[in-house]
Amino acid sequence: MQNRQYWIYWQMLMPGAGRRVWDLVNYFGSPKQAWEAAESELSEIPFIGRDDAKKLVKRRESLQYGKLVEYLKKLNCAVFTIEDEAYPSLLKTIYDPPPAIFVRGALPSGENAALAMVGSRQPTPYGLAAAESLAGELAGAGLTIISGMARGIDSAAHRGALKVNGSTVAVLGCGPDVVYPRENERLMKQILEKGAVLTEFPPGTAPKPWHFPCRNRIISGLSSAVLVVEAAEKSGALITADFALEQGREVLAIPGNINSSKSAGANKLIRQGARLITRPADVLEELGLGDISLHNRCGKGLDCAGLTGNEKKVMQALTHLPMSLEQIIDECRLEPKEVAAALTVLELKGFTRILPGKMYAAAGL
């Protein structure tokens, strides 16, 4: 336990620099010895140098650990070091795990399989609907949904899990007491009530562009697989997918419109070998969890007694992925007013869900 305090010291001093901290610890033999090293010793290290050694010592001397401890208590924020049992076991296995993490709320049991869901900050209605619906189905089946609480797909994934009282963890690119983006203040409160917020950045740390790639490696590191819902060819979601591959995680992707630039990244991942996902069962199969129960839609196990012929036709046309009213009409070959009436009844009976962008999906698959 003697090392515990020093791991926290290093995390406060060099957040987001996990590999550099590990190099220092390996060089000196322990976090305590590295922390107590003299400036002359630090300056002799090839990857530090004289100038950085001077800056490091100056920052080390200005560290106010006592104030941090007091503030963490007020914030009801825990700190778990790499040596603590509560530190997520999957995260320990990555190349550069943070020496310590700051956690608000309650991390899920280690027995829960975890799926990262990431995507565009400016998604289409299709992407939003797919993320929320799929996250809800999988969280309802017992998976923990991991994401970054960013605008767009991340927020939709968290909301989907919360709607079914499922487990979700938000990984931040800022301090645990900082809400980013600001409009997600309510969402963050909901996550804290039913899940956890986790970060490697100390309280008070503002979000900066370089923080988010650091955050992305933790999102994938906490998960058994990463699902890219919607992403352009150059996006943070693809950075997360790259981290997942480096960490030995599975990469999954939902196919998107071939004419949409916002789906180009996800479609490219599929071409490169990522598992194509069109329903919750695909994810469970990929994770080796095929025996976990998922509710099935009409015609595949769900009791459709009491539904009219039109209602059954609509249920058979619906898939897990969101569909527009026009798509359902084409699939059912019914009149628009007949489909609209059937959808209204099915929603009231809990067979379907209306999703953002006036999209529809089966309530379970």
TrEMBL record:
GO BP field:
DNA-mediated transformation
Q: Which residues form the Smf/DprA SLOG domain?
A: 79-287
* InterPro entries given in the database record: DprA (IPR003488), DprA_WH (IPR041614), DrpA_SLOG (IPR057666), WH-like_DNA-bd_sf (IPR036388)
Query: Which Gene3D superfamilies does the entry mention?
Result: 3.40.50.450, Winged helix-like DNA-binding domain superfamily/Winged helix DNA-binding domain
Annotated ranges, domain DprA winged helix: 306-358
The record's family statement is: Belongs to the DprA/Smf family.
Q: What is the protein name for this chain?
A: DNA processing protein DprA
Q: Which organism is it from?
A: Desulforamulus profundi
